[in-house]
Amino acid sequence: xxxxxxxxxxxxxxxxxxxxxxxxxxxxxxxxxxxxxxxxxxxxxxxxxxxxxxxxxxxxxxxxxxxxxxxxxxxxxxxxxxxxxxxxxxxxxxxxxxxxxxxxxxxxxxxxxxxxxxxxxxxxxxxxxxxxxxxxxxxxxxxxxxxxxxxxxxxxxxxxxxxxxxxxxxxxxxxxxxxxxxxxxxxxxxxxxxxxxxxxxxxxxxxxxxxxxxxxxxxxxxxxxxxxxxxxxxxxxxxxxxxxxxxxxxxxxxxxxxxxxxxxxxxxxxxxxxxxxxxxxxxxxxxxxxxxx
Length: 293
Description:
By secondary structure, the protein is mainly beta.
């Protein structure tokens, strides 16, 4: 009988220990789930869950207004001369992005191409119109490190850094019929290239589990080069250093656990004493697919 009582007591004690352990584990799981639910930053489609990976891709279309230093062909009675003017063009850029991340680190590489064009008038002794065409291409790679320990006012800050390559390829041709250089032949071509190395800060502000806002700003060191050529002349080339900056604001909406729609705006500029300056502002929309594992 005594042994039976001891056995029962031992069994009861073991059951109590197991129950307490299970209750503690369940409590820990609930606490972890509550913490992640309260910290909505992990619902952002670009933020991996702690200790996990994500990969994704998206397609994007951007409406762009661009100001840039362009070359103009000034036709006078004495011939053709070339001058630098500031032009404004409107068009759109399309592209795609591949993203990947682990823990607090996330990055992407994106490629965009754009096309702009139009006609402009000039006042000269002959009087004429010029037809212009501009093509752009951009490759950008960026890394972002999230710092959740510094969260404030519901905003989780992050640090960014990366590289951007931009090419602006342009041409002008005379449209006025009575001025002919072999018909409507390209009168002037120029090309600008910019290599930018940038760093900056930003933050993520989720509103709900499906909706949130991202914003960042960065400064850049820029190395620029280019060339232009007018008819009957040799090509001129240039290169130099400058500085620039860019900023983004993006509103994201999670359609499902894998699909996300985003609307945003982007502004950027490049300038310097010995490089052609340009600045652009764009409004974009994209649709992305992301997998967490």
